[in-house]
Amino acid sequence: MTISIRDRKLLSNACTKQIENCLPGYLLFNDGCIESCPEGYFMVEKSAKLDEQSNTSVVCNRCHYSCKHCFGSNDNECSQCFSDATLHRNGHCFAKELVQEVMALEKWYTAVAVVFLCLCFVILTLVVYIITDKNANILCCLTPSAHRTPVYDGLPLKSHHSVVLSTDPLKGKRNKYQIEDISEEDL
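Above: the chain sequence. Below: its structure as C-alpha cells.
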C-alpha cells in the first residue's frame, strides 16, 4: 500500500523534496512509503545523525540480481529464487540448467577416475609380475638364491644328491626338506 501524495507532503520535511521517514509500520521506497518491500528488495534500517538528533528510517534495498527474495544484498543471502533457479543450503541461487550440467560432468569425471584407477592397478600388477618373473629371487624376501633353502619338488637335483625329510619338534609337525650331498663312498 502506497501513501497518497497529500500524506507524503505531511510526512516530508518542509525544507526538502524527498521523504526521509515514514510512519511506523511503513518502509521508505523510491521516495514513497510502502507496507512491505517488493520482490527483489529487502528491509533494512538506516540511521542518520543530523545536528545532535539521531534519525532512523526503515528502507528497502535491492537484493542480489539472482535472488527473488532475500535478507541481504549479497549473493549468498537469498531466501527465494526465480523459477529458473534453485536455492541451495548456503543461500545461493543457481540456475537449474547449470546445476544439471555440473551434475552430469561430476558423474562423467567420477567414471573417468574409476576407469583410470583400474587401469593404473592393472599396469602396476603387470609391472610387478614382469619384474618378479625376470628376477625370481625378489619373491623370496629379496634374499639371494644362495641363502635360500631349496624346495623339494620330488626329483633329485643331481645324481649324488638325496632328499631328507626332517621334522622340528619345537615348531610342531612342520616338515622340512633338505638336500644332502651323498659322496660316492656312501653309495
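The chain has two helices and ten strands.
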